[in-house]
């Protein structure tokens, strides 16, 4: 009975995670008008599923961390009651935020669940040092780092664009380098290609030479393609970093022992995808339109910084929050443009602060119920 209940609660957590997190990778793509909501959601779901599939190969440290290893004695974290309390605490916090359309961190909610369940089951044996070093420190530092990096790189990117004279009508072209070579046999000359020249041209120049260009695309279209690529990378990074955290709750109790690990991974990744498909619109609107207005280049920069940080953290086994990182990057854009809705930013930051105690309180209450009813 407890076995089945744990499995159901963990799948509910995966569903809630997808509902609150899936669209975040494509919020800037949607907000800047590169893709419609439906197309952004389709790309977000596909990239998350790919990251989930890869996570089992590269994220063993995250799986172990979110099973509570080192935070409590092994006998405590392996109990069904403890892990049900952890997962349920996170479900409550993420579910409330999703209903309100506020982006919060499932990672943060899981940390709160671990703390609350730990207080219920083994309060004297909690390792607060492990909680701070392994979980809290990366969660606190990562959004600030994303915000600082974007705020530092944004003026550099603007300066480069102005120095290179890139405008909406500028075209990126690749032209073959042609040289005349004298043929040895009869002395006649023939044109041969000696490489490719890549550069920028204004619209009129590019139009007149378009027939001989190997590649010819306006700079805006190139930026859109790169922006879409950065969003796919961030969606992949989200699946890579989040899936093992949820899977770790099952592995801690050896629940997966009766199932193939791949099957379990598919179920968790599938539940995340389903939650995103059914419940992402409010979050997409909040991140894509309400925090700050975002153009194509700004979205590209924010996503590139976010995906790089999350992927590096995943390979390092650090439990960062995709929500915190991507939101921090968008905040960084708002700092420079002066167009941020700081009332909404404060609301989001407040939601981040209360996520942990809400999840902890729900997990503690569930833990006490399990102990009381045996």
So what's the overall shape?
Answer: elongated
How many helices? The count is 15
> Structurally, how many domains make up the residues?
2
Give the total of beta strands.
3
Largest sheet: 3 strands, antiparallel
Strand content: 5-15%
Helical content stands at: over 70%
Task: State the strand order across the main sheet.
Answer: 2-1-3
* Strand/helix succession: HHHHHHHHEEHEHHHHHH
What does the average pLDDT come to?
78
Which structural class should the secondary elements be placed in? mainly alpha
Computed CA radius of gyration, to the nearest angstrom = 25 Å
Q: Poorly predicted ranges (pLDDT <50, ≥5 residues)?
A: none
Distance between the termini: 13 Å
Detailed description of the structure:
The chain has 15 helices and three strands. The chain is mainly alpha-helical and 374 residues long. The chain has two domains: 312 residues, no CATH class; 49 residues, no CATH class. Strands 2-1-3 form a three-stranded antiparallel sheet. Strand 1 and strand 2 form a beta hairpin. The protein is elongated.
């Amino acid at each position: 009975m407890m076995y089945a209940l744990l499995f159901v609660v963990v799948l509910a957590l995966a569903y809630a995670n997808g509902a609150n997190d899936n669209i975040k990778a494509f919020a800037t793509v949607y907000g800047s008008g590169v893709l419609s909501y439906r197309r952004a959601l389709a790309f977000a779901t596909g990239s998350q599923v790919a990251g989930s599939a890869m996570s089992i190969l590269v994220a063993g440290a995250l799986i172990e961390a979110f099973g509570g290893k080192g935070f409590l004695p092994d006998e405590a974290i392996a109990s069904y009651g403890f892990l049900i309390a952890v997962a349920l605490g996170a479900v409550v916090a993420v579910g409330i935020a999703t209903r309100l359309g506020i982006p919060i961190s499932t990672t943060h909610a899981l940390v709160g669940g671990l703390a609350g369940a730990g207080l219920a089951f083994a309060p004297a044996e909690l390792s607060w040092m492990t909680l701070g070093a392994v979980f809290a420190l990366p969660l606190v530092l990562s959004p600030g780092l994303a915000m600082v990096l974007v705020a530092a790189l944004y003026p550099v990117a603007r300066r480069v664009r102005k120095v290179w004279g890139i405008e909406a009508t500028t075209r990126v072209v690749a032209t073959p380098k042609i040289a005349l070579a004298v043929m040895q046999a009869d002395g006649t000359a023939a044109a041969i290609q000696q490489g490719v020249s890549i550069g920028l041209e204004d619209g009129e120049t590019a139009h007149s030479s378009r027939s001989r260009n190997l590649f010819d695309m306006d700079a805006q279209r190139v930026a859109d393609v790169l922006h879409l690529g950065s969003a796919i990378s961030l969606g992949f990074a989200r699946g890579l970093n989040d899936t093992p955290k949820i899977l770790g709750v099952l592995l801690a109790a050896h629940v997966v022992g009766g199932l193939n690990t791949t099957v379990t991974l598919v179920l968790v990744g599938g539940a995340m995808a389903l939650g995103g498909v059914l419940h992402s619109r409010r979050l997409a609107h909040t991140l894509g339109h309400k925090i700050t207005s975002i153009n194509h280049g700004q979205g590209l920069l924010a996503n590139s910084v976010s995906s790089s940080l999350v992927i590096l953290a995943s390979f390092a086994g650090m439990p960062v929050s995709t929500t915190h990182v991507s939101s921090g990057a968008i905040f960084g854009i708002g700092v420079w443009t002066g167009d941020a809705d700081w009332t909404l930013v404060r609301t989001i930051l407040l939601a981040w602060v209360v996520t942990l105690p809400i999840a902890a309180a729900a997990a503690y209450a569930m833990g006490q119920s399990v102990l009381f009813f045996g």
